[in-house]
Amino acid sequence: MTADPNVDADSAPRRGRPKEAGLAERRRRQIVESAYVVFAERGYEATGISDLAAHAGVGQGTVYRYFASKREILDHVFDFSVERLFEAVDPETLASTPTSLAELVETIQLAANRAFALIEREPEFLRLILVEASAIDQELKDRVLGLEQLAANFLVKSLRRGIKSGFVRSDVDPQVFAHMILMLILPGLLQELRGEGSPENRERYIGAVVHIMMRGLCAPMTVSV
Amino acid sequence: MTADPNVDADSAPRRGRPKEAGLAERRRRQIVESAYVVFAERGYEATGISDLAAHAGVGQGTVYRYFASKREILDHVFDFSVERLFEAVDPETLASTPTSLAELVETIQLAANRAFALIEREPEFLRLILVEASAIDQELKDRVLGLEQLAANFLVKSLRRGIKSGFVRSDVDPQVFAHMILMLILPGLLQELRGEGSPENRERYIGAVVHIMMRGLCAPMTVSV
Amino acid sequence: MTADPNVDADSAPRRGRPKEAGLAERRRRQIVESAYVVFAERGYEATGISDLAAHAGVGQGTVYRYFASKREILDHVFDFSVERLFEAVDPETLASTPTSLAELVETIQLAANRAFALIEREPEFLRLILVEASAIDQELKDRVLGLEQLAANFLVKSLRRGIKSGFVRSDVDPQVFAHMILMLILPGLLQELRGEGSPENRERYIGAVVHIMMRGLCAPMTVSV
Amino acid sequence: MTADPNVDADSAPRRGRPKEAGLAERRRRQIVESAYVVFAERGYEATGISDLAAHAGVGQGTVYRYFASKREILDHVFDFSVERLFEAVDPETLASTPTSLAELVETIQLAANRAFALIEREPEFLRLILVEASAIDQELKDRVLGLEQLAANFLVKSLRRGIKSGFVRSDVDPQVFAHMILMLILPGLLQELRGEGSPENRERYIGAVVHIMMRGLCAPMTVSV
DNA sequence: AATGAATGAGCTTTCATTCAT
DNA sequence: CATGAATGAAAGCTCATTCAT
Questions:
Q1: What own/partner pairs with CB < 8 Å and gap ≥ 24 does B85-91 have?
Q2: Helix residue ranges per DSSP H, chain A
Q3: Which residue range is the domain that position A130 belongs to?
Q4: Are residues A148 and A48 in the same domain?
Q5: Any chain B CB within 8 A of the CB of A135?
Q6: Of C92, C90, C80, C178, which Cα lies nearest the Cα of C129?
Q7: Is the torsion defined by CA of B153, B157, B162, B168 positive or negative?
Q8: Please, what's the b/e burial string for B75-106 (b: 16 or more CB within 10 A of its CB; e: otherwise)?
Q9: Which of A149, A193, A215, C58 could pair covalently with B216 via S-S, beta carbons 3.0-4.6 A apart?
């Protein structure tokens, strides 16, 4: 076995089919994306591995080459969804510290608009995150709630800064309000789930959220600016 | 619902075998109540008909004498849940037409407190309605959303009256605000789902909802009463 | 109608199909006996639950109503086999304390004959116990070996008594010889496995075993010849 | 391609690509040896081709280039095992025609010791031959039994010679006794399977076998005692 | 009317085998 | 030649539903 008669002078003994780097990652992606669609479409429980495989255009066995179980796929689908949400909202580009209530509201408005844009493009996204994932088990439910918590934490920081800067009332509880602000966008989400989503409606809702945040419900004379 | 032994419009006294009128209805009730408990406890998919039958103290076959399928039972469980929610909130006793923002807010607060009281007594209720039911199929999802719509309609009427009476700003869109007000209680619900629910927390949230509704977030000087 | 048609006066409220006592045990037996046959015929691994169910004349689901897993069925099949072996050999009727080597040998001969009679009737029995069971896992292998140990223990006692009585050489190690005596019947068993079993052959072998034991175990003075 | 790439008996100096004649055979050997190890370790059924290939350091596909099926590999593993047993026992060096019972017994003892030495070195060997192989199908079972037959034939010849020479009783049935002598070593094997094997135990057993054989086989006059 | 034994379709998962590279 | 990615048949097992009693 001195001079290997079999291959190449160069050090790497290239035997067999070359391993095509990145294939594994591509396949995983392909399967997760298919799962994202079919889970959203028919629900996690109602989707069989065979459906999933068929949609991905691979055999059932191939699915198990890349994922240990159906449940694990759901995990990755959730990650994938979160990833997409982050890409869509792109928090980096939001993080300018607001110096007035108007600015703060504007930032929130921007984030909401971006999220809605994603949902408009892919309505199943919402169902997957909000409805499917929550129903599987405690772990995934925790992850959904954790996502909301994450967003809330951003807002908490902004509100605290607002209070320190004086443009947010000091008797506002940042923790509490952060969550509530997030909830204010839920009616819009529900509309989407209902399939009644439309740009005009979205406008109305976002406008109302701004209103409520800036003014509450109190009548004009009471406020008197 | 007084002394009617026989149901139905005809009052002909059924001799021979009174057939234990209402027995069927009692059985259905018994099964639905059991299903309510076990579905909430273990989830719809994870619950087998045998679990359900065992909990109800009847045979599996008996379940199918009263319901055509597992899915149909869920329908009835949902109805039953809604029924309980209505009993708890008891909208009849809320419907006094408010004549001031404070009164309106107080009414909402009362309704919210009643709903929370139910959830505190039976936390699984929330899970069933919000999480389990939504994940089954479109029809049930629609029903969940319909429930929200129902509550919103109440609020819409109140807001319209408020606008007419002048204690609600006229630029408030009743439809939109109604939904949003409902959403404001969601953070509290999420806390319950997370198992972090506590009376103090609930107080904080409800207080904040009142605040936001009455004042918005604007700083005190801006408001100037 | 005074007597309630529904519930009856006697204490036991007999509702539904009567539970047919002993059915469960009968079904278990039926399935185990089928398994005994098909496992022996095709081997444990090669037998599917569907084969087993088909042979038993029941649905697959029914199998799982009575056994938790395929493996558990094998356990019971093993028990069943041991049970049959015991019935066939009927050790109770063997246990007369022998007072001479001839008597001891006769007893052993009788036991061997009975075992062979079973195997002749049901050759698959042997395969199941000796070959199939051993190959599944450590636990079953231990049980097979334990069975041999059990038989050996009987012999050890007899040999000890024989030594004390003087009709077995005192330099015989009871533990060791007990196992060996058992092994002496193995060539006969192997013949059966080979399908070459015949009464004449069995005679030859048992005769030879007697020969070897009489010569090997006899107390020194007795041998003389 | 002028140069036959395929090896074969012809000795024409293969220019260009000698094709590493015997490479195929080496590969086969490598795979079989790996299979020997992993089959013995985890069992035939429990071993996947991937395990096997990994242990052999080749791809799964390569395995199928050299063997048509998993089953065929087992065949070769069995051959390999027999081969090892023969190497260990080395019958050539045993075949000196014994001229006395003591010599015969000594020869058998030597063979047994060699076989035990192998088993002590590689306990899995026993499991493979005795337990795994037997359970697969009739063909392999036959081969296991054939192995015993082979050893028995050796003994038959020796016994016949012994009878002719007069140092073995003439009423000994060579066929029958040959098998029995082989069986006498089984308790020792079982101990190994049980994991209770130890040199002392082995001594005891072999001693007892010698004892029983000397007494059982010896010609009448010799015994006297 | 009530029962629970029986069923079988369908589930997730495994793995011997094939084949493009 | 060698490879390991891909495959799909088939496994064990579950459970909503049916039905004899």
A1: B85/B115, B85/B118, B85/B125, B85/B129, B85/B147, B88/B114, B88/B115, B88/B117, B88/B118, B89/B114, B89/B115, B89/B118, B90/B114, B91/B154
A2: 23-42, 49-56, 60-66, 70-89, 101-121, 123-126, 133-136, 138-165, 174-184, 186-194, 199-215, 220-223
A3: 78-223
A4: no
A5: yes
A6: C80
A7: positive
A8: bbbbebbbebbeebbeeeebeeebeebeebbe
A9: A215
Minimal C-alpha gap between A21 and chain B (Å): 39
> Which chain A residues are within 8 Å of D61, Cβ to Cβ?
16
The pLDDT profile of chain D, 225 residues, written as one tens digit per residue, is 444 444 444 444 444 445 566 778 889 999 999 999 999 888 899 999 999 999 999 999 999 999 999 999 999 999 999 999 999 999 889 867 888 888 888 888 888 889 888 888 887 788 788 777 777 877 888 888 888 888 899 889 999 999 999 888 888 889 888 888 888 877 777 777 777 777 787 778 888 888 888 877 776 544 444
**Domain shared by A62 and A82, yes or no:** no
CATH number at C55 reads 1.10.10.60
> Can you give the pLDDT at residue C8?
43
CA distance C128 to C183: 18
Token code pair at residue A2: 């001195």
B182 residue type, one letter: L
Say how many domains are in chain D.
Answer: 1
**Shared domain check, A25 and A86:** no
Instruction: List the CATH number of the domain containing A207.
Output: 1.10.357.10
Dist. CA C194–CA C196, nearest whole Å? 5
| Interface check C139 vs D, CB under 8 A | no
Q: Is C190 in Cβ contact with D145 (below 8 Å)?
A: yes
Q: How far is C142 from chain B (nearest CA, A)?
A: 38
Q: Which of residues 49-88 of A touch strand E (CB under 7 A)?
A: 49-50, 60-61, 64, 68-71
Q: Taking Cα atoms as reference points, which of D167, D164, D158, D156 lies closest to residue D223?
A: D167
- Tokens in use for B71? 């899915």
Protein residue with the closest CA to the C1' atom of nucleotide E10? A48
CA distance A128 to A134: 9
Q: Where do we find the tokens 């509880």? A: A173
Q: Which of D14, D20, D65 to mutate to test the interface with A (most CBs of A within 10 A)?
A: D20
CA distance D157 to D175: 9
Q: Rounded distance, CA C114 to CA C108, Å?
A: 10
Asked if residue B60 lies in contact with residue C17, where contact means CB atoms within 8 angstroms, the answer is no
* Tokens representing residue A30 in the block: 């392909």
Close Cβ partners of C118 (under 8 Å, ≥ 6 residues apart): C84, C85, C88, C89, C125
Residues C127, C145 within the same domain: yes
C105 and C67 co-located in one domain: no
Please give, rounded to a whole number of angstroms, the shortest distance from the CA of D139 to a CA of chain C: 11
Among A9, A39, A67, where does a domain finish? A67
Q: How many angstroms separate the most distant Cα atoms in chain A?
A: 97
Residue C12 pLDDT greater than 70, yes or no: no
Say which residue the tokens 């059915």 belong to.
Answer: C23
Quick one: A165 and A104 in the same domain? yes
The answer to whether some atom of strand E lies closer than 7 Å to the beta carbon of D14 is no
Task: State the burial class of residue C32 (Cβ atoms within 10 Å of its Cβ: 0-12, 13-18, 19+).
Answer: buried
Please report the pLDDT score of residue D219 as a whole number: 64
What is the three-class DSSP state of D218?
Answer: strand
- Residues A196 and A87 both lie in one domain: yes
Q: Which residues contact B100 (CB under 8 A, 6 or more apart)?
A: B167
Domain annotation covers residue B48: no
Domain boundary at A10, A44, A67, which? A67
| Lowest-pLDDT choice from A18-32, C175-189, D13-27 | D13-27
Residue A2 lies in a domain: no
Q: Is the CB of C28 under 7 A from strand E?
A: no
Quick check: is B211 in a domain? yes
Whether residue A43 sits in one domain with residue A114: no
